[in-house]
Every structure is written in structure tokens, then in C-alpha cells.
């Protein structure tokens, strides 16, 4: 019997009945390791014998997007959040020396996971983190215990109007069409990603888009991001494989989706119900970066979902 539950934009705080608040919060460690001569930065917290959640960030941010979620989860989970090459505190080789593709970013994450000895984990995927996480799941389906999906697409229905200029570049990768999407790395666009779909902008910490823009403004980073925009096209042919993975392995899945997101709109959340049996969907009244406004609720939902479905190592 299908265990799907869909809850649309209910302003409900899930009560956490655990003793987490009585437990001292574990420290957060900020580490860097070498992966194929690249410095890869990651954040790690929580007991290593607890269930592991691998947090995979989106564009244009870094593991910094999880800075508030990590302490909320670390009393119950072992959490790891890495910066991809070209993002955050990780190495940023020139795009002529390192191919910025989703396959290569997945390779780096896979090698980091191996170095950390993670043999079982759940995936928290957001934006770019979705195709990276799902590619990783295709390679090691037996390792994935559950999915947490925050505005992470795996269906054609989720690529609407925002993607039209990017699709134009996919179809005709001329310098003119490349320049036509350059505005996506500009300060105005970066701030818009945080503010769009959020009713109360005073809930947003402006250091988020300021820090992201510092990364984007590094010499050469715009070419890195434009390369990744172009390579995003390689994810679409994998959508049927991602969906087959869902149907075959049936990972318990919690969707916490900002329903007002113009980049990955709510239309991308609905099709997951076609393929997954254990599915709980929450459409939150916020935008692309749902953790910025609904972090406490998302953390509580994760704890409740894992407890209900007894997801553990």
C-alpha cells in the first residue's frame, strides 16, 4: 500500500519529543582534504555511529546553506556537508584545467564519501545537489537509506519558464547565448534567489547572498558557473534513470519544498509521487532557499520522518 502523504503549506511546527535539547550540541568541524589534488572543504558534526546524512548544496551557494541546519541535526545524526570544486572554500581550478560537469562534481563527492568511510547514508539534495545526489545513488543504490528533497528536480515538469534562456543556450551554445545568461551570476540575481517567493524579507540574513556573491565575483568563476549551466542539460537524459532508481529501490523520501520557487517550482515536487511509495511532501510557503525561513520546521520534519520510518545504520 502506498504510504504517500502530501501536506501543502501548513504552518505547523512538528513537536520534537526527543531529549535532544538536554544533550550537549556536538561541535562542528571544518575540514579540508585532498581529492585528486583539489582541496575539498567540508563541515562535519554529530556522532559517527549515528545515521549519516550527506548534505548536497545548490547554486550559487555552498555548504554554508546548511550552517543552521547542521547544529539542529547533529544531536541525532552524523552530518557531512561539502563544497564542490568552484564553490565555497574548495579549490577553484580554471575551467580550462578542470571540466566543470555534473559527472565530475559527482566524482569528487563520491571520492570524498569513500575517504570518510561512509557506507550507508541518506541524501539531502537541493538544486544542483539533486542531480549530483541522484547520480551518486545510481552508482551505489544499496548505500542510500533515505532521501530529503528541497527544491531538487528529477522530472521534466520541474523545468519551466526560468529555464528558457538556459535551454536556448543548450540548443545553440554561441557566445551570444552564453552572454545571454551571464546575468544569472550578477549580484541582483543572487539576491533575487533568496528573496523571491518570501513574504517577509526581514527573515533573511543578507550575509547569505553577500557571501555567495564574493564567490561568484572571483576571477574566472563566472565561466565556471556558465559551464555548469550548459552541462545541466546532461541531467535531463538521466531523469528516466533517476525515476527507475526511485521505483526499484524505494528510498523513503521526505520532500520539503519552497512552493514559491521560480527556479524549481512546485510542479517539480508532485511527480515524485508517481514513483515512490513511502513519500511525505510538505509544500512550504517560501522560496528557493527554504532553510533560510523554515529551517527549524525542516529539521523537525527530518527527525520525525526518520523516527517514524526507523531509518538508522
Descriptive notes:
Helix 2 (102-115) packs across helix 3 and helix 6 runs antiparallel to helix 7. The longest helix is centred in the last third of the chain and has 18 residues, at 291-308. By secondary structure, this protein is an alpha/beta fold. The chain has helices at residues 69-73, 102-115, 129-139, 164-171, 175-179, 187-195, 207-216, 221-231, 239-249, 272-275, 291-308; strands spanning 5-8, 28-35, 38-45, 52-56, 78-82, 121-126, 144-150, 253-258, 279-284. Residues 8-20 have low confidence and may be disordered. It is built from 11 helices and 9 strands. The radius of gyration is 18 Å and the shape is globular. The protein has a single domain (5-308), classed as 3-Layer(aba) Sandwich (Rossmann fold). A hairpin with a 2-residue loop joins strand 2 and strand 3 (38-45).
Order of helices and strands: EEEEHEHEHEHHHHHHEHEH
Report the span from N to C terminus. 25 Å
Rg on CA atoms, Å: 18 Å
CATH class category: Alpha Beta
Characterize the largest beta sheet: strand count, sense, and whether it forms a barrel. 9 strands, mixed
Number of domains: 1
Mind sketching the topology for me?
Layout: E1 5-8, E2 28-35, E3 38-45, E4 52-56, H1 69-73, E5 78-82, H2 102-115, E6 121-126, H3 129-139, E7 144-150, H4 164-171, H5 175-179, H6 187-195, H7 207-216, H8 221-231, H9 239-249, E8 253-258, H10 272-275, E9 279-284, H11 291-308
Parallel strand pairs: 1-9, 4-5, 4-6, 6-7, 7-8, 8-9
Antiparallel strand pairs: 2-3, 3-5
Helix pairs in contact: 2-3, 6-7
Amino acid at each position: 500500500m502506498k504510504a504517500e502523504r502530501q501536506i501543502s503549506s501548513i504552518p505547523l511546527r512538528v513537536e520534537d519529543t526527543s531529549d535532544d535539547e538536554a544533550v550537549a550540541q556536538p561541535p562542528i568541524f571544518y575540514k579540508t582534504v585532498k581529492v585528486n589534488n583539489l582541496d575539498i572543504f567540508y563541515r562535519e558534526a554529530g556522532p559517527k555511529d549515528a545515521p549519516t546524512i550527506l548534505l548536497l548544496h545548490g547554486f550559487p551557494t555552498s555548504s554554508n546553506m546548511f550552517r543552521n541546519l547542521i547544529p539542529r541535526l547533529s544531536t541525532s545524526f552524523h552530518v557531512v556537508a561539502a563544497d564542490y570544486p568552484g564553490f565555497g572554500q574548495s579549490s577553484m581550478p580554471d575551467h580550462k584545467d578542470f571540466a566543470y560537469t555534473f559527472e565530475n562534481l559527482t566524482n569528487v563527492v563520491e571520492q570524498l564519501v569513500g575517504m570518510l568511510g561512509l557506507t550507508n547514508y541518506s541524501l539531502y539534495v537541493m538544486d544542483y545537489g539533486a542531480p549530483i545526489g541522484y547520480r551518486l545513488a545510481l552508482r551505489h543504490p544499496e548505500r542510500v537509506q533515505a532521501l530529503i528533497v528541497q527544491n531538487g528536480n528529477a522530472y521534466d515538469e520541474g523545468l519551466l519558464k526560468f529555464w528558457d534562456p538556459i535551454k536556448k543556450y543548450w540548443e545553440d551554445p554561441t557566445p551570444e547565448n552564453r552572454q545571454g545568461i551571464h546575468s544569472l551570476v550578477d549580484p541582483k540575481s543572487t539576491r533575487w534567489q533568496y528573496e523571491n517567493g518570501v513574504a517577509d524579507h526581514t527573515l533573511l540574513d543578507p550575509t547569505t547572498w553577500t557571501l555567495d556573491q564574493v564567490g561568484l565575483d572571483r576571477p574566472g568563476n563566472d565561466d565556471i558557473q556558465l559551464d555548469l549551466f550548459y552541462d545541466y542539460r546532461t541531467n535531463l537524459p538521466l531523469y528516466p534513470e533517476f525515476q527507475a532508481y526511485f521505483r526499484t529501490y524505494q528510498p523513503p523520501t521526505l520532500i520539503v519544498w519552497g512552493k514559491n520557487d521560480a527556479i524549481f517550482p512546485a510542479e517539480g515536487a508532485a511527480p515524485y509521487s508517481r514513483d515512490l511509495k513511502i513519500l511525505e511532501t510538505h509544500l512550504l510557503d517560501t522560496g528557493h532557499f527554504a532553510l533560510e525561513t523554515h529551517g527549524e520546521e525542516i529539521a523537525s520534519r527530518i527527525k520525525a520522518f526518520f523516527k517514524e520510518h526507523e531509518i538508522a545504520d
